[in-house]
Design a protein that fits this description.
Blueprint: H1 11-20, H2 27-30, H3 34-48, E1 50-52, H4 53-60, H5 64-76, E2 80-86, E3 90-95, H6 97-109, E4 118-119, H7 120-129, H8 139-146, H9 153-165, E5 169-172, H10 179-184, E6 194-197, E7 199-202, E8 205-208, E9 237-240, E10 244-247, E11 259-261, E12 266-268, H11 271-274, E13 279-282, H12 292-297, H13 300-305, E14 307-313, E15 316-321, E16 325-330, H14 334-337, H15 340-343, E17 348-351, H16 357-371, H17 377-391, H18 399-413, H19 422-432
Parallel strand pairs: 4-7, 5-16, 5-17, 8-12, 10-13, 13-16
Antiparallel strand pairs: 1-3, 2-3, 6-9, 7-8, 11-12, 14-15
Helix pairs in contact: 1-7, 3-5, 3-6, 8-9, 16-18, 17-19, 18-19
Domain AAA+ ATPase: 165-352
InterPro entries: AAA+_ATPase, P-loop_NTPase
Protein name: AAA+ ATPase domain-containing protein
């Protein structure tokens, strides 16, 4: 997962989320059943032994008012009892024998012990409010974000239009031409922050959404836990940057559907759900274990209808908005992955190619500056004419970085310093590319 910087949220966006998800002050306002919350509190008490109100607030991400209502309900049901006061005059709560039995029964049905989940009906609305398909990217935005990158203006404009379209994108071309590098940085164009639930509740099933490996939390004073704070945005939602998920040849079909672990009795969200309101890049398309057609067919309905159907097992399904930018990246001819009829469903196909000599020179100069190596135009001329020209090798964007680094490795090994020589670059060349001389 790649992080982006300078995330922000406008007052209008915050107000929209505030209206949709205000801090609940009663059980009814949480959108969850009292029995469901009662079971969750019992599981927390079973896990921790004894908890005071501040710890319950922290664990369940609910207000003190809501938890007071739940605890009153549990005490009447003789599942919870007061075990005196903690320092600071706060009451301490623990389970009765009846409560421990109820907690074991609840854990047998669901192993989830975490923050109170967000109801799926409200989550659908939240995804729509925070949509990434706002169509606000301009040519100025593209050139400001990628101005330092050696990329043709036509390609920048193609990318910008594609991102605004809301349709899937396929980026294809030879290996090393910058497909992954560029696509992974598209998230920088979407600097608005969003709110991500710890988990969502679909009837009795709880699916964890927040993933610290995917979602980068933002500092937000309004999200501080405070026992008496009954205002602000629902604390079951975490303030995060828009997510970016990149997956490659390791991707399996199982990762694209809800997974249930029978040992922990917990549900895990599919990758595309974790990427909601962000970018999901399938890199090395065609290198996965499943057939390309099988993987591509998984996206037909989401791409066309902007909704995804998740299988919860036992004949249960759930429909959720498919709100993300889906990017396929491959160095295989797209016509070998799918027929033309399917490729038409993917809105934009962008071809990344080899460099022109002037573009290669600009990248070479950028890399010498980054590495602190003096730029010598004669050395570059030697590389282009005597190495690339002699072997008819195409100019690839990743080559300057790799060749210069390898030449520096040799220089440091031999105890040298200063400008790189043609001999050092030729040595790097011979070690970088596969040599076929042994076949003769």
């Amino acid at each position: 997962m790649y992080a982006m910087s300078n995330s922000r949220v406008s007052s209008s966006e915050r107000e929209a989320v505030q209206r949709l998800a205000p801090q609940p002050c009663t059980i009814l306002e949480t959108g969850l059943a009292d029995n469901f919350l009662g079971d969750l509190v019992c599981k927390h008490l079973y896990d921790a032994g004894v908890l005071d109100m501040s710890r319950l607030v922290e664990r369940l991400a609910l207000t003190g008012a809501v938890l007071e209502e739940v605890l009153t309900f549990l005490r009447k049901d003789r599942r919870v009892e007061i075990l005196g006061q903690a320092p600071g005059q706060t009451l301490r709560y623990g389970l009765t024998e009846r409560g421990r039995a109820a907690a074991r029964d609840a854990l047998a049905r669901s192993g989830y012990i975490g923050a109170a989940p967000f109801p799926v009906s409200a989550y659908r609305s939240l995804l729509k409010v925070q949509t990434i398909h706002h169509g606000r990217i301009s040519a100025h935005d593209m050139h400001r974000s990628f101005g330092a990158m050696v990329l043709a203006q036509d390609m920048l404009d193609q990318l910008g239009v594609a991102l605004n379209s809301g349709r899937a994108i396929m980026i294809y071309g030879p290996a090393g031409t910058g497909k992954t590098y560029v696509s992974s940085r598209l998230i920088r164009l979407f600097s608005e922050s969003i709110w991500v639930p710890h988990a969502i509740a679909i009837n009795e099933a709880v699916i964890e959404i927040f993933d610290p490996q995917v979602h980068r939390r933002l500092d937000d004073d309004q999200q501080q836990n405070n026992l008496l704070l009954n205002e602000g945005i629902d604390r079951r939602l975490l303030h995060c940057e828009r997510p970016l998920i990149i997956t490659g040849g390791e991707l399996t079909m199982e990762q694209l559907d809800v997974r249930y672990d029978p040992f922990t009795r917990q549900y895990q969200a599919p990758l595309q759900l974790k990427a909601s309101n962000g970018l999901f890049i399938i890199d090395d398309m065609g290198r996965q274990r499943m057939a390309p057609a099988e993987l591509l067919n998984r996206w037909i309905v989401p791409m066309e209808e902007k909704r995804d159907f998740l299988n919860l097992g036992g004949g249960r399904h759930c429909e959720l908005p498919f709100d993300l930018i889906l990017v396929f990246s491959t160095n295989i001819n797209p016509l070998e992955l799918a027929d033309e009829a399917f490729l038409r469903r993917i809105g934009y196909k962008l071809q990344f190619g080899y460099l022109k000599p002037e573009e290669y020179r600009r990248i070479w100069i950028q890399e010498t500056e980054r590495l602190g190596v003096p730029y010598d135009p004669q050395v570059l001329a030697y590389v282009l004419q005597e190495l690339y020209g002699a072997e008819n090798m195409p100019l690839v964007p990743c080559h300057p970085r790799d060749l210069l680094n390898m030449a520096l490795d040799r220089q440091r090994y031999l105890g040298g310093s200063g400008p790189l020589s043609t001999r050092e670059l030729e040595w790097a060349w011979r070690n970088y590319f596969v040599q076929l001389d042994f076949l003769g």
